[in-house]
């Protein structure tokens, strides 16, 4: 199954319409896709991954393997309520806590800050493209996500360590993401991420050439009135190699009120006879403008 790949370099040329159509289809039919030629500095992305892996080896690996979870696997227990991962979470917007997290090197903090500055611009660009495809004002998602200080941005840094018994535990159990737009910088070699589509689990391959993997969160599905899907996914534990996952969440602020965009709602509270009267005049025309007129009628205008 071929996962959609959106080439951002084609958005400024003759292939813009086809690229926008592919993005719309990916959001609507898949809920996830890859982005290439996204403009984020490749050397910076490589540096972030290298520094995170160094941090894992120096500060997280020993503590993980000495925890209760690996001991449970040694006893051949099937583990259903715990994930085979070691993580830390960083807040970036509206304010950052990265320099408050114990054990992170200054080089890692600086690299992550620089990466996030570029990634937020990409997330905002992507949100505007989604709005364009949905027929909304280009700033609609950003404004809907904004509290008094703008959208909320945070990153979950996760390592899924080598697992001696991947048949007994998941790397991360099945779930959808609660927030908005998720941009994942992932491992180039070790697989494990899977998304559920059309009744089957689809393997997401490791990201070559620093392509970013993107998926919709629950709030995008809500805001789009179900047009864009938030899809269940999981991470499988792997016997060979550690899998790196750096997932950044472009989310609504905590106080943001999220609801379907009114423009995307069907007409409601409209007498059927009033709709029939409208229909008789527009039967052979596009139904979209008819629905818009019906909304106006329903609102008493």
UniProtKB/TrEMBL annotation:
<comment type="similarity">
    <text>Belongs to the iron/ascorbate-dependent oxidoreductase family.</text>
</comment>
<dbReference type="GO" id="GO:0016706">
    <property type="term" value="F:2-oxoglutarate-dependent dioxygenase activity"/>
</dbReference>
<comment type="pathway">
    <text>Alkene biosynthesis; ethylene biosynthesis via S-adenosyl-L-methionine; ethylene from S-adenosyl-L-methionine: step 2/2.</text>
</comment>
<keyword id="KW-0408">Iron</keyword>
<dbReference type="GO" id="GO:0046872">
    <property type="term" value="F:metal ion binding"/>
</dbReference>
<feature type="domain" description="Fe2OG dioxygenase">
    <location>
        <begin position="149"/>
        <end position="252"/>
    </location>
</feature>
<dbReference type="Pfam" id="PF03171">
    <property type="entry name" value="2OG-FeII_Oxy"/>
</dbReference>
<dbReference type="InterPro" id="IPR044861">
    <property type="entry name" value="IPNS-like_FE2OG_OXY"/>
</dbReference>
<dbReference type="InterPro" id="IPR005123">
    <property type="entry name" value="Oxoglu/Fe-dep_dioxygenase_dom"/>
</dbReference>
<dbReference type="InterPro" id="IPR050295">
    <property type="entry name" value="Plant_2OG-oxidoreductases"/>
</dbReference>
<dbReference type="GO" id="GO:0009815">
    <property type="term" value="F:1-aminocyclopropane-1-carboxylate oxidase activity"/>
</dbReference>
<dbReference type="GO" id="GO:0009805">
    <property type="term" value="P:coumarin biosynthetic process"/>
</dbReference>
<dbReference type="GO" id="GO:0009693">
    <property type="term" value="P:ethylene biosynthetic process"/>
</dbReference>
<keyword id="KW-0560">Oxidoreductase</keyword>
<keyword id="KW-0847">Vitamin C</keyword>
<dbReference type="GO" id="GO:0031418">
    <property type="term" value="F:L-ascorbic acid binding"/>
</dbReference>
<protein>
    <recommendedName>
        <fullName>aminocyclopropanecarboxylate oxidase</fullName>
        <ecNumber>1.14.17.4</ecNumber>
    </recommendedName>
</protein>
<dbReference type="GO" id="GO:0002238">
    <property type="term" value="P:response to molecule of fungal origin"/>
</dbReference>
<keyword id="KW-0479">Metal-binding</keyword>
<dbReference type="InterPro" id="IPR027443">
    <property type="entry name" value="IPNS-like_sf"/>
</dbReference>
<keyword id="KW-0266">Ethylene biosynthesis</keyword>
<dbReference type="Pfam" id="PF14226">
    <property type="entry name" value="DIOX_N"/>
</dbReference>
<dbReference type="InterPro" id="IPR026992">
    <property type="entry name" value="DIOX_N"/>
</dbReference>
